Every structure is written in C-alpha cells, then in structure tokens.
Amino acid sequence: MRRRQFIGLVGGAAVTWPLTARAQQPNRSKRVGIVMGYVESDRNGQLQTMALRQQLQKLGWVEGTNITLDFRFAADDVDRIRTAAVELLALGPDVMVSNSNLVTTILQREIRKIPLVFISVSDPVGSGFVTDLARPTGNVTGFANFQPTMGSKWLDLLRQIVPQVQSVGLLLHPEPPNFGYLKSAGDAAPGFNIKVIGLPVEGSADIEGAIAKIAAEPNAGMIVAPNAVTFANAELIVELAARHRVPAIYPFAFYSKAGGLISYGFDAVAQFQQGAQYVDKLLKGAKPTELPVQFPTKFDVIVNLKTAKALGLTIPESFLSLADEVIE
C-alpha cells in the first residue's frame, strides 16, 4: 500500500594498463569488472546487478557484442574480495565497480589508473575515497548512501513506533562511517531518554551474539547500519531480530520486505541504474573528476505491520499515514 513520499588489499603493483592505449582503440569491446558485497545467491544483490545490466543495455551496451561484464560476489569476506580484485584486474577492465565501503576500500588500494565507480558507500570523504564531492580527485567517483547524521533520524523513527524503547543497539561494522552513525545516534539519545550501545560485528559469526546482547537490555531496540556485513547477512539479521523479539529499523526496503519492522532509506536498485550511467560516461571518455559524487534525494519509510503485530506493537495511525509503504 503506497502512502505519501518523503522527499527529503593486497598491497601490490598498481594497474598500469595505459589509458592512452584504450583511447586508441575506440571500436574495441569494453570490459567492466564488478565486485559485489553479497553472496551470489542473494536476491538483493541479483536485483542490483540486473539493474546495472539492464540500464547499460538501454544505453547501447550489449553483452557479448560491445561490452563484457565480469561479476564477482565476495560478500563480506576480505580474502574473497582480494581474490576478486586480482582476478578482475588481470582481465584488463576499462572500468571497475564496487559495492559497499569494504569492497571499495580494497579495490581502491589496487587501482591507480582505471576508473572506479562505487555504489552505496557511506561517507566517501571520511572514508578516504574522494577528497571533494563535487570534483573528485584521482580515479574514483560514485554514489553514496547516507550522511553520518542519519543515525539520529533512525533513532527518532524507531522511538516513534516503539515509544517504550530504553536501550538501542547499533549493529555496525567497525569502519569510520558506521562510527559516524553511532555518534549521531548517541548525541541525540539523551533528548529521548535512550541509551545507545554500539554492536560491532566483523562477520556473520558475530551477529547472533550482538543481537542477543542488546536483547538482554530492558525495552531494547536496534538500528542496523549499512555495510557489507549487514548487506550480506540481511536475512539472518531479520530472523534473529524476530527470534529475540527486538524491534529494529533498517537502512533499505529489502529488510522490511524480508520481515524487518521498519526501514528508512532509498531505492538501492535505482542507485545501480545511476551507477550504470556513470559507467557509460566513463567508457565514452569522461573522467572521474568530471562526475560528482551523488547522494540520494528521496527516502522512504516502510513499515511491516505483520512484524509489528508479532512483536505486540501497535503502530500509531498518525505514523502509518506518513509511511510510504505499509506491508500487511
């Protein structure tokens, strides 16, 4: 039901494939390497890669004719990401695409000349991917997800639908942008009489313990920050939140559609379509410095009423009237 819209590492040799060599071969079929922060079977990862493929096709790039797309699904496994980077760079890509901060960090260390388009990363300046959003320096540009201040917004929305919440855990991968969300939520917490607790996780093995930890707190809730670990383990996180009866807010719609209580974020699939547009421009000769880093301009609130009922929560009608989508 649609409601109104909120507008709102492997250290090694750098790649030396000369840009001039590519420029002198305009009719040569192009190659794009893509490293995803999902396992290959993940539905959300597949939807996003499909969006990239389809948009490139609309822009005139036909696989097997004038472009080759090499995908690697590395999830949140650092070794797999490193291996994927080595494999793809050996193929001589014209452009690389990365998904998540973890993947982008590793690829950036290896790529010096080839244009790199990141998609769905947090705080690209603070993370060291670019020094200027409007005119990125070097060979990297792309699309970011949330500003660090989003932590306080997630906390406020969770409080509105769970007014009795007293302790909120923020599930995060220990990297700079996620600490930004934690600081933002922590700064806002005293005004709501809420305690915010950081729940750092390095991988799937840490997730259950982290959720059990916050579940042991009185009137607990949880914020799930966007990062490779939470992308790759979305279904596990939603399942554990339900098992431990922890109301949680998530950064993307796919969590709510998988059974998460509430999400506040943007359309991740649409951002991959935007990413395809940057890939197209770069393949046609644009430079990363000419393509500004972009942030989403539209955010949606999605509420899963079935999950609310299972948790014994009554969502205020005033809140539901403002939601963009209510899953019943």
Give structural notes.
By secondary structure, this protein is α/β, with parallel strands linked by helices. 40% of the residues lie in helices and 19% in strands. The strands form two sheets. A seven-stranded mixed sheet has the order 7-6-8-9-10-11-12, sandwiched between helices. A five-stranded parallel sheet has the order 2-1-3-4-5, sandwiched between helices. Helix 6 links the parallel strand 6 and strand 7. Helix 5 packs across helix 6 and helix 7 packs parallel to helix 9. The N terminus is likely disordered.
Describe what is shown at a glance.
This protein is an alpha/beta fold and 328 residues long. The protein has helices spanning 19-23, 43-58, 78-90, 101-110, 150-161, 176-192, 204-215, 228-232, 234-243, 253-257, 268-283, 305-310, 317-320, and strands at 30-36, 67-73, 95-99, 116-121, 140-144, 167-172, 195-200, 220-224, 248-250, 262-265, 300-304, 325-327.
